[in-house]
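Consider the tokenized backbone below.
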């Protein structure tokens, strides 16, 4: 297993076969995810069965209610621009942050790569926290953000709202990450009125997503990319995409294997 650290977030791992990983390999990758946020695994020409078995090595799967399951693989869903009159829209976010226990990991398997565009962008939320001005850190210490569901249809009994600390210790590393999501999903900040909360979330998001804090991953055939939702934000860049962009997505529920 060879590793190349990516800046400002992530690590590329080569010399592995997702179909033959052992428990020690998964433990090592879990550590890389916790420390670096994103693991890029090029050259993995695997099918959905192998992709799913790889993900299950990290723990039980979870699924975002309201997404359409992949036929034959109900734990996976498709992310695609095929057949759409308008490009999909994507903002920086954390997957399913509106539940009390958000998914620990998300992974994408490249199925079809566009001829141009379609990158996925990741941020380093450890660095986002560490580089906050001292005054802002002091003002936000101990506060929580109420995350709410938007853009998905859920059953009446499903979770649609959860409180999370804005400064969230990572369950494995203990390092503090700035935990937020797209502004529409950050409905309130404890101890702030609506206007102050909205301005604060926008300020934090702008700080997190500065160019010098973002990794832009350009997809290649055979790529599998996995990330830790506890320390990164992500979004797909749909601007200027030429050709079909099709990904299969899976999510792992928790950090305990």
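A designed sequence for it:
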């Amino acid at each position: 297993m060879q590793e190349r650290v990516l800046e400002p977030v992530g690590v590329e791992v080569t010399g592995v076969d997702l179909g033959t990983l052992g428990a020690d390999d998964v433990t090592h990758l879990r550590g890389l995810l916790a420390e670096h946020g994103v693991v890029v695994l090029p050259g993995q020409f695997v099918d959905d069965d192998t992709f799913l078995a790889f993900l299950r090595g990290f723990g039980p799967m979870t699924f975002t209610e309201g997404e359409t399951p992949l036929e034959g693989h109900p734990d996976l869903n498709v992310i695609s621009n095929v057949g759409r009159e308008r490009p999909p829209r994507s903002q920086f976010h954390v997957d399913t942050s509106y539940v009390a226990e958000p998914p620990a990991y998300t992974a994408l398997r490249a199925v079809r790569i566009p001829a141009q565009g379609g990158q996925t962008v990741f941020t380093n939320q450890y660095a986002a926290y560490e580089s906050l001005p001292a005054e802002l850190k002091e003002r936000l210490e101990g506060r929580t953000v109420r995350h709410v569901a938007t853009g998905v249809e859920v059953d009446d009994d499903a979770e649609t709202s959860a409180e999370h600390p804005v400064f969230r210790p990572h369950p494995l590393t203990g390092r503090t990450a700035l935990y937020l999501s797209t502004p529409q999903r950050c409905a309130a900040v404890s101890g702030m009125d609506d206007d102050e909360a909205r301005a604060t979330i926008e300020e934090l998001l702008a700080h997190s997503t500065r160019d010098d804090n973002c990794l832009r991953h350009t997809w290649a055939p055979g790529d599998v990319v996995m990330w830790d939702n506890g320390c990164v934000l992500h979004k797909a860049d749909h601007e200027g995409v030429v050709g079909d962009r099709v990904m299969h997505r899976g999510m792992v529920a928790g950090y305990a294997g």
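Helices lie at 23-36, 48-56, 125-130, 134-140, 194-208.
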